[in-house]
Give the backbone structure.
Amino acid sequence: MSAVHDAGPEAPGRHRVVLTGLGVVSSIGLGVKEFLEGLKEGRSGARPITVFDTEGFAHANGCEIVEFEPLDWIRTLEAEQLGRAAQFSAAAARMALEDAGLDAADLRGRRGLISIGTTDGESYDLDQLVEAEIKGGPETFDPMAARRIPAGRLSVAIAQELELADVEAVTVPTACAAGNYAIGYGFDAVRSGEADYAFCGGADAMCRKTFTGFYRLGTIAPEHCRPFDADRKGILTGEGAGVLVLERLESALERGATIYAEVLGYGLNCDAHHQVAPNRASVARCMELALDNAGVKPAEVDLISAHGTGTKANDITEAGAIREVFGTPPRTVSMKSMLGHSMGAASALGAIGCALALAHRFIPPTINHVTTDPECDVDCVPNQAVEADLRVVQNNGLAFGGNNAVVLLGRYDRPEEEAC
């Protein structure tokens, strides 16, 4: 399966789509300002996991969020009625709304879209329910935890928290590529005029189930995530949410909004090659689809935010696919070296990092790097951010089951007559 859309934002009935608000819940910072500082500093979110019991595991570092207070952001709903992932999602949406300078009351009379990607939904609560059933039977279930389970609440909670009525609220379950899928869905809706605005991105909370699954696969790193490094040991599981506000360019200009970046296009495919192993040809094809959709030539891409998990197979496969498409690759970084793998939030947080890189003209580093694996052979901007005059950036999201999603963003330079 693949998706290719009519290229070119200037086609009849097509609107240019821009990013005007960013909301971030991450292990390296809450809110766009702290997240930007974390990316520039090369901050690490790695720490011992405390959100669930790690007894019996030889190592249990992760990128857990430890300073999140839901009541700082969740003002309409009762926070305890939301699962951890839905709290992240609703909080990030509130941050994005405020960052965009929008008033929720003004949005209530306009048609909107909410699309949030996820890998696990509310598996943290599922963990607790399974434990309760094993210890005491289903009659010991916490009813509130059971009500928090449906993954659809990750998007619906945003509509409820912001009191938006005329919206479509969709949760996209395409695992670790889901954030990019959700952005593509929002892009299509706004570009076509089907929606006036979109809140899109991804959210996931750490859970024992996912950590254990990766641990059993032998892909959990003992201490640090080291993408593209010759001595990389695997991923660190993480958590968080990234929500982006998309709107038409003319709308953003009319209200004098800050424009972080323009969404140029995206590509999707699913090769179903293997349950967990990426397929190089399919990854390369997805990048080609995104470039074609955006009307961008490979030589015009200045930076790739790689999926970059830090596993042997992913990094070699992804780097090979990049060389296949680009020849000599542009600089290729992995924000997971800082954030860990935040599952459904990963490519959403990556897209936010890309937008900030365009707006602030820098490249985030790949931290924990010592020696580049010759089989990867990319300039991963090791350990320190660098200044860069970026025009076009590519954000990769690859997922189990062969689900791939790639988003292209471009810098928006306001014409002189508009800037005056």
